[in-house]
Amino acid sequence: MEINTALTEKRGVSLPFTDYCDPLFADGVVFKELLGDMIEYGEKSKWKSLEFRTENPLSSIPVSFQFYGHSLDISRNEETIVSGFRDSTRRNIKKAEKEGVAVTIDRTFDSVREFYRLNCLTRKDHGLPCQPYIFFEKMYSHIIAKNLGVVILATINEINIAGAVFFNFGNRVIYKYGASDRNYLHLRANNLIMWKAIQWYCGQGYQRFNFGRTERENTGLLQFKRGWGAREYSINYYKYDFRQRAFVSDHVKVTGLHNRIFRMMPIPLLKIAGAILYRHAG
């Protein structure tokens, strides 16, 4: 798909706003045979870059940047799944239950709106602008309202303290977004949400549970995801620069000055910044 904005210039991405999307080929087709045609198209369209995001490596092409992915087999019974959890993960689930954290699985727009509130808190903590409200409206109408996803909220004393959004298609599930109120992190609600999601989708007959993309430098999130006994793999990003006529390294800095600035902003300003900037992402 083509992204064309004044801020980032024109570029091709397969596929915007996805963690990865492996190329689909008929039998006998080799990726490099099509690459020349794609580069030719990008040159004619005046693209700045062409980007591929894959789980499976593209042969003979240097990787520009890598993330981690985690995939859990949930086709087994619950007892077998739990046996693969790290001890600390099981303890955190029990702690949340002992503290009285309640979890609800929902597909209503009210749950999406409440997740949006929690997401704004989390984005501020991370020094990032909030995704636009309309983004979540579209996510609801095109995905969740069509039974292709759920919102799971964790509550204590009638206060929503954490939430997550999951998408599902075929026999697979992906943990897409997570958010929480940092004042309640000690209750380990995120662990209980993840377990209830795994448990629910397992009961619905799904087979693979994907934890989404994680930056290699994000040690805290990696530790959380590694606690569920999932298979860890690399997600490979390939970026062709039309000015250099070559695939280039594209290391992304996790933190910087902009993060500190966004962290100091009040949430209403972060919402405005997100509405302006998010359309340039992907």
Automatic annotation (TrEMBL):
Pfam families: Acetyltransf_6 (PF13480). InterPro entries: Acyl_CoA_acyltransferase, BioF2-like_GNAT_dom, FEMABX, PG_Glycine_Bridge_Synth. Keywords: Acyltransferase, Cell shape, Cell wall biogenesis/degradation, Peptidoglycan synthesis, Transferase. Residues 85-215 form the BioF2-like acetyltransferase domain. The keyword Transferase applies. It comes from Geomobilimonas luticola. This is Peptidoglycan bridge formation glycyltransferase FemA/FemB family protein. The keyword Acyltransferase applies. Belongs to the FemABX family.
